[in-house]
Design goal:
Blueprint lengths: L5 H13 L18 H10 L4 H8 L4 E4 L7 E10 L3 H9 L1 H4 L5 E6 L35 H10 L7 H22 L17 H10 L3 H5 L3 H6 L10 E9 L6 E11 L5 E10 L3 E12 L5 E11 L7 H29 L2
Antiparallel strand pairs: 1-2, 2-8, 3-4, 4-5, 5-6, 6-7, 7-8
Helix pairs in contact: 1-11
Length: 349
């Protein structure tokens, strides 16, 4: 039996959940000549949907494939499904992200207030598996943080005190909140570099690399790339934005993440949703999820999803092998994951 690195097993599970968009109901109308030409170009040119793919969707076949990566450690995939429900039902459930994302891999989740507060993180539990703050050192820490924050654990926490762990957790939550508040408001304080390992990680630079290989986002919604890369100084009119945090089972240890969701609507009526990684305590350097919702006049809608992520575990001497394993297993795991999403939406219509 093939042996899989524990982290890769977690990556496959999370990717399967995140990319679960590939079970197609028989009898769905095919995206034909009447489709918005911009969307059709994006699907065929950028997301690599062939003419036979469009036909296969209408016949109830599964559409899923990986996409070319732009850098070592990057994995990208796309899938499509037909949903017999209204877009209003989808958006109502999606906005309730706490319930929409619930699955076995999501241990905890919460949505930030429109004006984020530290209390928004009150229900997040942080134990030794999430953070070993006592032994956290620059270039050797269990979570991703910049040098200045890593040093605070040794400078501000009396590790001989009974409440040392409680204080360390409070400090860690404050660090996450400070990053969120700076991101949301545009004030100084953003985490610009992770110094937990020997190789520094620049998440903004990694995200810029992802965006450079996802230029079709701007084709779908002009102004959306600037909205994502320069937020909040460059805002897309009429876009809906919110943040949520989650603690998810992944690899050897769970990780804590903050995600920025943006919901926008094209002039053609197509709904475009992006999910941008704001902070990840482990594993991911950066990521961008793109959900395209194309309603049909007679009811129902197509759901097309692509995800492009960069992970340190997929770099290095064995990065190519690990990446191929992840891609293969993601393709094989998508159908089961989407089935649950599809059933839930169609029952709620």
């Amino acid at each position: 039996m093939e042996t899989v690195h524990p982290m890769l097993a977690g990556m496959v599970a999370r990717a399967a959940a995140a990319l679960a968009f590939v079970v197609v109901a028989a009898g769905a109308p095919a995206p034909g000549a009447d489709i918005d030409p911009v969307l059709r170009t994006v699907l065929s040119r950028d997301l690599k949907f062939s003419s036979s793919d469009f036909t296969d969707i209408a016949r109830g076949k599964i559409i899923k494939h990986t996409l070319d990566s732009a850098a070592p450690g990057e994995v990208a995939a796309v899938g499509a499904t037909w949903i017999r429900a209204s877009t209003a039902t989808f958006l109502d459930q999606f906005r309730d992200i706490v319930h929409f994302k619930q699955n076995d891999s999501v241990l905890q989740i919460g949505r930030f207030s429109d004006s984020p507060t530290l209390d928004d993180l009150a229900s997040l539990t942080v134990d030794d598996a999430d953070l070993d703050a006592r032994h956290c050192r620059v270039a050797d820490c269990s979570v991703r943080l910049p040098t200045a924050d890593i040093l605070r654990f040794q400078r501000e926490i009396n590790w001989n005190a009974r409440d040392a762990k409680v204080r360390a957790v409070a400090l860690f939550k404050q660090m996450i909140f400070d990053d969120v508040q700076a991101y949301w408001s545009g004030r100084p304080g953003r985490i610009l570099q992770y110094d937990d390992a020997k190789r520094p990680i620049l998440p903004a630079m990694e995200f810029a690399g992802i965006m450079s290989n996802s230029r079709y986002v701007g084709d779908l919604i002009p102004g959306l790339p600037a909205h994502l890369t320069d937020f909040p100084s460059s805002r897309l009119p009429a876009a809906e934005d919110f943040l949520y945090w989650s603690k998810e089972r992944f690899g050897i240890e769970p990780f804590i993440t903050v995600t920025h969701l943006t919901i926008a609507r094209a002039a053609s009526g197509t709904i475009v949703i992006t999910s941008k990684d704001v902070y990840s305590s482990r594993y991911f350097d950066s990521s961008l999820g793109l959900t395209i919702v194309r309603p049909e006049p007679e009811g129902g809608f197509y759901l097309i999803y692509s995800n492009r992520s960069r992970a340190s575990a997929l770099k290095g001497a064995f990065g190519g092998l690990r990446k191929s394993m992840v891609e293969r297993r993601v393709r094989g795991s998508l159908e089961q994951s989407l089935q649950a999403v599809k059933v839930r939406l169609e029952r709620a219509r």
